[in-house]
Automatic annotation (TrEMBL):
UniProt organism field: Sphingosinicella rhizophila
Domain ABC transporter per the UniProt entry, residue ranges: 4-213
Pfam family membership, one: ABC_tran
Key word Acetylation present: no
Keywords: ATP-binding, Nucleotide-binding, Transport
Keyword ATP-binding: yes
Molecular functions (GO terms): ATP binding
Gene3D superfamilies: P-loop containing nucleotide triphosphate hydrolases
PROSITE patterns: ABC_TRANSPORTER_1, ABC_TRANSPORTER_2
Top-level taxon of origin: Bacteria
InterPro entries per record: AAA+_ATPase, ABC_transporter-like_ATP-bd, ABC_transporter-like_CS, P-loop_NTPase
Residues in coiled coil: none
Family assignment from sequence similarity: Belongs to the ABC transporter superfamily.
Protein name (record): ATP-binding cassette domain-containing protein
């Protein structure tokens, strides 16, 4: 079943058309968005996460078009953008719990889930340290971990394994594969990476078009 559908979606910034009449469906399972730098992968992900609106066309969540379905989509969403400013003075746990509270999650359950996720991706021993002490790769894993809280039905992950060493990338990848068993997981990546073998579909974003790879 296609949870999320794009029909003839276009996105322009000023005169620059980044996405051109994109029609694509995103079912439960893993969708990889591949394509060269600047192709529009992150833009597409922001549209899917309802962080931006299309210039034209329709986005349909669970059978209902946006904007009517926007709140429902956001309640079901975990989003890990590529670059986000984190509150350096907070501990990673305090930040994650803040995100859980914004999502309206039960905080005891969310804290338990945070423990399991961070354990799986090698962040557990640093969870009570302040974010200012975090490396780039640790920040990326924290953004990834908060996206998974509440087991969202739609997971939009912008290059979750970038900046990670091979073993850590593999651990994050294993979590992505696990989530894709019960959610529509959409992952952008520069390269056709190891996740491709687990993907329900691989879509190539290039020159405004989105086509099966
Ligand atoms: N807010 C914006 N205003 C103007 N142009 C933008 C904006 N956001 C993105 N763009 C342009 O849209 C194009 C696609 O950018 P996008 O970040 O989506 O590409 P990408 O495929 O994710 O690239 P990368 O792999 O390097 O992250 C680029 O030319 C970029 O400059």
């Amino acid at each position: 079943m296609t949870l999320l559908q794009l029909d003839l979606v276009r996105k322009s910034y000023g005169r620059k058309r980044v996405l051109d009449d994109v029609t694509a469906g995103f079912p439960i399972g893993l969708t990889l968005l591949i394509g060269p730098s600047g192709a529009g992968k992150s833009t597409l992900l922001r549209l899917l996460a309802s962080a931006e609106r299309p210039s034209r066309g329709t986005i349909i969540w669970d059978g209902t078009p946006l904007p009517a379905a926007r709140t429902a989509l956001r309640r079901s969403l975990g989003y890990a953008p590529q670059a986000v400013e984190l509150p350096d003075d907070l501990s990673a746990r305090a930040f994650a719990m803040h995100m859980a509270a914004l999502k309206g999650l039960d905080l005891v359950a969310a804290d338990r889930q945070l423990g399991a996720i961070t354990d799986a991706i090698g962040l557990h021993s640093d969870i009570d340290n302040r974010i200012i002490t975090y490396s780039g790769g640790m920040r990326r894993r924290l953004i990834f971990a908060q996206a998974l809280l509440g087991a969202p039905k739609l997971l939009a992950l912008d290059e979750p394994t970038a900046e990670l060493d091979g073993e850590t990338a593999r651990r994050v990848g294993a979590q992505v594969i696990e989530q894709a068993k019960s959610a529509a997981v959409i992952v952008t990546t520069h390269l056709a990476d190891e996740l491709a073998q687990y993907a329900t579909q691989v879509l190539r974003v290039d020159e405004g078009r989105v086509i099966p790879a």
